[in-house]
Structures are given as structure tokens and as C-alpha cells.
Amino acid sequence: MKSAPTLSSAFLQPAGEFLPGPLLELRKQRGTALVDMPLPTRKTENWKYSSRHLKLSDELAASLPSSGKEGSSLALPGYRVIFRNGVMVPEASDFPDMNGIRIQRFCDLDDQEAAALAERLDNTLDSHAVQMARLNSARFEDGLLIQLDKEAVLDQPLFIVHEVTASSAGSAYPRIYVDAARHSQMTLVEEYISSGNEPVLVNTVTEFVLAEGAQVTDVRLTLEGENVQHIGATGVRQAATSRFESHCVGFGGPLRRHDLQVRLEGEGAECKLNGVVVTQGKQHYDNHTSIEHVAAHCDSEETYRNIAADESHAIFNGRIHIHQDAQKSNANMSNKNLLLSTGAEIDTKPELEIYADDVKCAHGATIGQLDKTSLFYLVSRGIGRREANTLLTMAFINELVEQVPVEAVRDAVQLRLNDFFNQAFQEI
Q1: Which of 239, 287, 337, 414 has a Cα at 20 to 30 A from 58?
Q2: What pTM, to 2 d.p., does this model score?
Q3: Half-sphere exposure of residue 212, counting CA atoms within 13 Å on the CB side?
């Protein structure tokens, strides 16, 4: 009987040693726990569509150098932090100078601050469901700690640009931890871009902890090239009356994977999760979301849209879990999917697990093609067939794109969508 593949020991070799002692010790512990870790296979339920796209050859184990060019697809009208190959670049960053807001790179923490952070890392994600996040914990070389004091409000978005320069094969492990105190507010924009053509693995983890009444909006934009495997995880824990918004916009690649897990742990907490995915060629994108209604009187709203063209493949797996004590929960999940060709594939699996008896919950999913009647109507009114296809396809996702609260992101997405439409409908 053939044994299951395990993580190569090459991925567990020591990386950069610039972190303070407590974080180095944490990383060592996480690495030891990964020895002989089984890799996901098609029999691994939450990886059954994506395991064959995961390529972890030894050449990807080396950490990418922190040198390279600086860039972004965004206009960056707010504050910015630049990560290059998983390591922060202070000289290229522009931090807010405001009372009550502290932004520190992991490498600059003293031992006491690092020890406090080490106790809190990895407490927002289910390590069994998000296996590859454990690799980030064993390999991160730097990270960003964002702390908002009580009632602190960040007046502009904070842009974090993760650039990978693939001049050689290797991997990068960006890490972000956000601690939002009582009634604080901020908007965070994570942009993932790349340059170069060598094979690269990007393994990211972002964690949010929201205290009572905190409000955090996270915008995630994935724009990396065809040579980049991207595996990301976002974990969120919310106290009473806090609100978390997520706007994820992703363009496909050889492997794109994002796990988003939210725990509503205090009464009156709310979350809103929006997602847009576009794939073409032979690209692959896999979104897994989980919302845990732990406390009573919590609301969640989730809307994801996928568009797949050519021979690409998009996956959505959304789970809402209503715990026994989560009475008066209100949860809604919607996943709509559009196939632009007969060779494209979309798989969707909405899950609703309820253990409380006084709740209001709904979920649904659809998969279809462009409506021929609507297309005929537009063409009959003098609109070209290609333009008509573009209009109908854009209308399918425009509702979610317009909800992204940062204009620079909306503009970047629109430019990228125009390129997608030009290729998807070029033969029409």
C-alpha cells in the first residue's frame, strides 16, 4: 500500500534568525510539530479538489531573498507597509503617526513584547482544518503587529503590499497580527503581487482579534502571476458588539487557496464576508470559509461569486456553525457561480450546521451560464455580442465590487477585469 506523502524536511530547515528569542522558540516548536506532517491528498475532504495542484518540491523550500524591486497596482492613498518576499521593508513604508495606534515589525519587538505575542499567535485558526497555516508558523521570518488602543480610529486605510520577486525558486511566509481594542476602528488592505517567472510558494497568515465594539474592515486583493502558488489563511475572533467586514477579490493562478475562519464569541457581534473570484485558462482557485456562531444575538452575512472561463476551476466551500448557546442567531450565505465555457468547472458546497432552536438562517448556491434571452435582448438593441457578454458578466459581480470600501482597490480590480473580459470573449 502506497504511503501518504509527507512534508519534505527541506521545508523545516532554519530560516532567518532576526526574530526575538520568544518568536524563534515558537517557530522552532511549530517546526518540530511538522516533522512527517501528511500532505493533503484527494482523500482529504477540504483539499479534494486542490491537492493535485499543490506542488511542494524541495526547490521551493528555500526562503526568497528580501531584495528586489518595489511595486504595487494600487494608488496607495493612505498609509502603507511594504513586504518583500515575506520581510518588511521599513524604508519603503509610511506609518501613521497617531496616538493609540502602534505598528511594529516582529523583528523590532523586545523580548517581553515578543513573548506576549507568541502566546497569542495561532489562536484564531483551527489548525486541523487549515493545515498549511502551520507551515507559516514554522517558517515566518518577519511579520507585522498592529495594535489599536481603546477608541483609536485609523483615519485612512493601511495598505500592506506583499510583493514576491521570483528571480529564483523559493518561498515566502508573510505574517500579520491585528489587535483591535475596545471601540477601535481601522481598514486594512492586503495586496499580493509578484514579478519574475521562477516557481514560488507564498504562504500567508493574517489574524484579527476584535475586542468589544471594535470595527475592522479587511480588503484582500490577490494579483500574483502564473508562477506563484498562493496559500493563505485569515483567522478572526470577535468579542461582543464588534463588527468585521471582509472583501476578498482574487484572480486565479496555478493554485490559489484562501481559508477564512470567523468566530463570533460575544453577544451582538457581526460579520460580513464578500468574495469575488475570476479564473481563466487552466487556473485554479479554492475558497474555504467558516463562521462559528458561538454567542447569542450574532449576525453574519456571506456572499461569494465565482466566474470561470476556458478550462479553469473555481471552488467555494462555506460553513456556518450555530452553537447550542447561540440563540437568536441570524445567518445568511449566498454563493452564485457563472460558467463562461463548457470546459470550465465550478464546485460549491454550502454547509449549515445548527444546534440552537431559536435562529434565523438561510443558505443557497447556484451555478449557471449567461442568460441567452438577456444576451439576445442586448444584441437586438445594437450592442455587439462581445460587449453584451461583458456587460452581463460584469453585472453578475458588480454588486460586490462596488461594495469594496477603498476606491484604489475598485479601480485596480476594474482594470484587471477588463483584461479578463478581453481574453474571455476575444473569439466572439
Answers
A1: 287
A2: 0.95
A3: 2
Q: How far is CA 300 from CA 109, 192, 318, 335, in A?
A: 35, 27, 12, 14
Query: Residue 34 belongs to what domain range?
Result: 25-370
Distance of CA 350 to the CA centre of its chain: 18
C-beta of residue 359 within 8 angstroms of C-beta of residue 327 = yes
Under the banding of pLDDT at 50, 70 and 90, the label for residue 68 is low
Report the distance separating Cα 246 and Cα 182, nearest Å. 19
Q: What is the dihedral of CA 321, 298, 330, 207, to 10 degrees?
A: -50
Give the C-alpha separation, 42 to 286, whole Å: 14
Give Cα separations from 130 to 47, 200, 279 (angstroms). 10, 20, 23
Nearest to 318 by CA among 395, 261, 254, 238: 261
Q: Whole-angstrom Cα distance, residue 314 to residue 338?
A: 10
Query: Each residue of 296-323: b (16+ CB within 10 Å) or e?
Result: bbbbbbbbbbbbbbeebbbbbbbbbbbb
Residue corresponding to grid cell 526575538: 20
Q: Is residue 17 part of a domain?
A: no
> What is the per-residue pLDDT across 330-389, written as a single tens digit (0 to 9) for each?
999 999 999 999 999 999 999 999 999 999 999 999 999 988 888 888 888 888 888 888
Q: For residues 245 and 157, what is the distance between their CA atoms, to the nearest angstrom? A: 14
Taking each helix axis from N to C terminus, what angle separates 21-33 and 111-120, rounded to the nearest 10 degrees? 30
Are 364 and 302 in contact by the 8 Å Cβ rule? The answer is no
Q: Where are the alpha helices (DSSP H) in 64-143?
A: 111-120, 133-139
In a domain, 412, yes or no: no
Q: What is the pLDDT of residues 235-248, one digit of tens each?
A: 999 999 999 999 99
Report how many domains make up the chain.
1
- The rounded distance, in Å, linking the Cα atoms of 210 and 219 is 16
**Residue 389: inside a domain, yes or no?**
no
Each residue's pLDDT tens digit, 142-166: 999 999 999 999 999 999 999 999 8
